[in-house]
């Protein structure tokens, strides 16, 4: 007898519908799985056999052929176990044929028949909805995540026996709680209140958060660059529900948070500088999302920027430009979302003590270091802030700011931008295109004169010109100012300077 | 010498051109002599025959002799012209007066300096100054791995000397050398770079921009080696003897012990020239050499005024300073009170945003203020997020 069961395969950060066809006919007992599965799929035979027997069902001693369709799609991972088991039960008439027409199943089986959580529950649930099905049965630990898709009846089961009970209508299993709210106002454990001193960097962090600008922190080792960067998510606007769903899907596919519901905090990813280009932007023969995708809607922190291999940083160029990564490997093409704010940190020179008598670096060392830094990525940074050692009095003083207060300023500034940017496709000033910069950002005559003076002095490149305008607009938004004042512009100019715009030393 | 500008100085003679060719031929052999720590002046003072014998220890002396015999002085003149170099020699009227005292002085000198490079070099070296006045030329040398302060001091000295009409001589090297050239260029003054390799090859390559700027601004590039010659190690101390020889005073800014800059100072002393040194922290390796020079009796140089006094003597230095005084960068009288206060705080040593304000709200104001001061040319940005008051012409 032939049975069809619908399940889903994870492909990048999305799911693809897969039909499991199970055919049982008389013959020598055997169990074959075809349909371009990987090793984990082939090993499903042993898991499914034991799980079926240990759950109190009979395993047909006949010839069993399982086909995973479409046969052209590569299938990997243990998520097909449950579908294969259900197919065998249906084909051997231990389960009514009709129950699996409108319901998909998904999950890994243990030998004892228990269900183990799998990656990508939310992506699967979205696939179920898109395929027009009504129900999804999957491991109980995945139910909260899958339950975020309200249109699908999600049932979580502890084991194969419970799955059968659910399918027969004898149980509902663990039902996901009613739609969870996005983590409005949720501030993580890291708060700006931990920071002492650092007035300049805090200001730059606020501006960066308000306009979505990329930021470079420069300073000697141990002065707090990483500490500051880690606290950036706490002052960014809370995730909207749509954003939170996207982040949850990505983290679910990456297997980062089994058993949990909606993500409430913006992601913060800090890949080590030994990361490869494909580790950073994604890759592999089955394209997997990289760090930049895992940081989608959050912060990508590149600590010790100069230590990153140039090839990795070059690879970041397109994602930062487009907000997504397109990866082509062999005949496979995958597109991953990648809207991130980049925060990078660097020492001011190889020894880290530039500007102090402790510095041992000569001009040649500095040039070599600068050369490693300069490049496509530096061009995409909007703000450069120097982080100095806090003074002893800073340590004794009160915290300079609290995350919730700063976040309120940032949210207000973003709302102002939202009104102005409506219809441009940009969500914050940093995303404005050059055309929109010209049409939406105006300077008073005095401000224009200042900018001109800076340009004439050679401290500003044509590319830097637009970036300064965007940052100046954000500073004005932070103060709820309709027009960009000269002071806004001066502050933006100084924060942008030194990012590859400085004229070559001595070269006239 | 004042007649040099009117009557043609003459063409470099075949003997001196042959010597330049010989130096290039035996350059590899001289490298051996250099490694044995033979004083560079003793080697370069040898006659052609003795030099050939001394340097061809390993290479075949006869082959060298034959190649030298086949040398055609015209070919070298043409090669120089092709690379936009002009040649002068010990026997032309425009040979630098400072080199005349040196028994090991270069026989021929290759000059790049625009249309009339030789005339320009003569002018830069003060050949047409009134009789009896000091030669307005000073050499500034120092470590390639200069500190931020060292670079600033070298620049300020270059600026100060140049704005008083003194030509700054140095070696285009990284660190102090190029900072001195840059300072001179900033002040719109004259500067001469002496290279170890051919005068047509910018070395180090990263200073090609500075090389071009020197030529474009009316300065000159000089070398004793023929065009396209790539320097050996011994060429650097040899180059240093020219730097020391061209100027009546040599000033050392930051030098480690046993460094090339100290060699330059020694070479200057051997010629009986004045040597000045900028003092530095006793514990810093960069100051060991300069502090040692001071202990041995070098003139202490704190700023451009001291450097001028060393070069021109007290009277002329005061005159030059008085002239430069009127060109200072003074804060405009109309500076807003907040900006004036900020400038005062920076002058007071509060040189970072963090030092100037504790919190983020203050940082916003201070950042904008610093930018305005920077655009007004009153402060400049330093590495490590520091700012510094712009040094006024001639002063530190």
Descriptive report:
The complex is a heterodimer of chains A (508) and B (396). With 508 residues, chain A is of the alpha/beta class. Helix content of chain A is 37%, strand content 18%. Chain A folds into 3 domains: 2-175, Ribosomal Protein S5, domain 2; 192-409, P-loop containing nucleotide triphosphate hydrolases (Rossmann fold); 432-502, Helicase, Ruva Protein, domain 3, CATH 1.10.8. Chain A has 21 helices and 19 strands. By secondary structure, chain B is an alpha/beta fold. Chain B has 2 domains: 2-11 and 72-324, Rossmann fold; 337-389, no CATH class. A 9-stranded mixed β-sheet of chain B has the order 1-2-6-5-4-3-7-8-9, sandwiched between helices. Chain B is elongated, with a radius of gyration of 23 Å. The interface between A and B is large, with 56 and 52 residues.
Briefly summarize what is shown.
The complex is a heterodimer of chains A (508) and B (396). Chain A is an alpha/beta fold. Helix content of chain A is 37%, strand content 18%.
